[in-house]
Amino acid sequence: MKCFINRINVFQLYCKHTNKILVAILWMWIAFIFCSHKPFVILATTTSVYDSGLLDELIPIFEKEYGITVKTLAVGSGKALALGRHGEVDIILSHAPDEEEVFMKKGYGSRRFFLMKNQYYIVGPACDPAQIQHLVSILDAFRAIAQRRAVFISRGDNSGTHIQERRIWKTIGIVPDGESWYHETGLGMGETLSIASEKDAYTLTDRATWLVLKKRLSLEVLWKHSEFAIVYSLIEVNSNRFSQINAKGAALFTEFLLSQRAQCIIATYGKDTFGEALFAPVIALTCK
Amino acid sequence: MIMDFIADGIRKAYALAISFDRDVYEVVFVTLWVTFASTVVSAIIGIIFATIVSLNEFPGKTFVVSLVNTGMGLPPVLVGLFTTLLLWRGGVFGEFNILYTPLAIIIAQVFIATPMVCGISLSALQQVPKNFRLQIRALGASRIQMIITLYRQARIPLLAAIMAGYGSVISEVGAALMVGGNIKGSTRVLTTAIVMESSRGNFERAIAFGIILLVLSFAVNLILSRLQQKGH
């Protein structure tokens, strides 16, 4: 009898806490949803590729065929490599060749492939106050901008484009920091182009972002040279260094991006919307 | 020019809303779900904490209250930074793989909204005269009953506290972007989508998302306001 009463007590106790138990179950369910281990790879990409929308074409195909989710983080090349150095991402898409080589040399990355090409342009107001239009060398163009004190907008965000720009200033021996004509935005390429457009200023841009945004900008391409290319590399982060890296997923993603199919998508992407392809594949292709 | 943009935005928002475009609905759904969860959690924590602080006298109470009031102005990006440091793979909670999931946004937003809810609830509960509490107790109410009566009494400002918490999470972008990563279909909420679309130069789409955000915010506040104004 005593035991029976005890049981009733237990039952009452149970009823009294039903709400709490339900809430606990709800939370466990939520936790389950979020922590259930669907395979995924984290990709840190440069903003220029992200903003072009190319990855929105490629990733759904990969996810469908391989059953692996890709989490894309749009950051500059500098930050992408920094995330890789901490093992926070599985795979990196960047364009900062020297930094990438250091990254590989120090053993943060396991494999590195060239994925595709883009190009640098200097854009500026149509009247071209620094007269760079007919200059052949990009060094001369930068020198002219500095000499005429024409307003120049820098990315200032440690992205691949920013690193390239800093390298040019360094090569010609000019320190633009603190000059009244030199401004840093610390923002992505799109925002920087908009600011340059509003301020009638020069800026160094990649061709893909320029083509995507040019119809909204009152800027012109004032300097270009096909030799001055941007090469995007794909780097798999070294899984021997960081235990949580999804090396297999990263390798499959690389395999997919270097496949004929993905490279053909890259070769044609943007032709319909922007009149010309935004990126060029690195390997010779025969696409349908 | 600006008017054209906004008119285009409204047209596009309408078109997007009726197009049943999957991407748009994903963003709206994630936003609703994430803000709902973080509002509920911060409302519970905030109001309980406010109750404990307002009903008890203890040394350093003024200090705690001013701490909470400072928290009401906590910059979302700072919360985002700390949450990122805690959650990333090398961080304290790294092994749970929470960073860049909706749960990460919820955690960060709870840190943002809880002080908001707590601060307003605190002043709401403290506004109820102390004699009122004593009177209820004298009438034989238990402590729990007294607290429930207190909540009824302070219903209007308490709901205002929840609305303020909701407002701060749905409009917040810094933390959501940092800990969520604006990942399509998973952590892309309306505010981060607006940032992305405007940096991609799709201003009509950005404005359309903005209008959807305002409508959502208005709808939820309408529901809460009806609850608040009931019987008034």
Please sum up the structure shown.
Chain A is 46% helix and 22% strand. Chain A is of the alpha/beta class.
Description of the molecule:
- The complex is a heterodimer of chains A (288) and B (232).
- Chain A is α/β, with parallel strands linked by helices.
- In chain A, 46% of the residues lie in helices and 22% in strands.
- Chain A folds into 3 domains: 2-35; 40-117 and 236-281, 3-Layer(aba) Sandwich (D-Maltodextrin-Binding Protein, domain 2); 119-229, D-Maltodextrin-Binding Protein, domain 2, CATH 3.40.190.
- Residues 1-11 of chain A have low confidence and may be disordered.
- With 232 residues, chain B is mostly helical.
- Chain B has a single domain (2-19, 32-229), classed as Orthogonal Bundle (MetI-like fold), CATH 1.10.3720.10.
- Chain B is 78% helix and 0% strand.
- Chain B has helices at 2-19, 22-55, 61-71, 76-87, 102-127, 130-138, 143-153, 155-170, 174-180, 190-199, 203-229.
- In chain B, α4 (76-87) packs across α5 and α10 (190-199) packs antiparallel against α11.
- The chains are: A alpha/beta (288), B mainly alpha (232).
- At the A-B interface, α2, β2 and α9 of A face loops of B.
Greatest contact between two chains: A-B, 28 and 24 residues
How many beta-strand runs of chain B? Answer: 0
Give the uncertain stretches of chain A in residue-range form: 1-11
How much of the polypeptide of chain A forms β-strand, as a percent range?
15-25%
And the CATH topology of the largest domain in chain A?
Answer: D-Maltodextrin-Binding Protein, domain 2
Mean pLDDT of chain B: 90
CATH architecture designation of the largest domain in chain A? 3-Layer(aba) Sandwich
Order of helices and strands of chain A: HHEHHEHEHEHEHEHEHEHHHE
**CATH class descriptor of chain B:** Mainly Alpha
CATH top level assignment of the largest domain in chain A: Alpha Beta
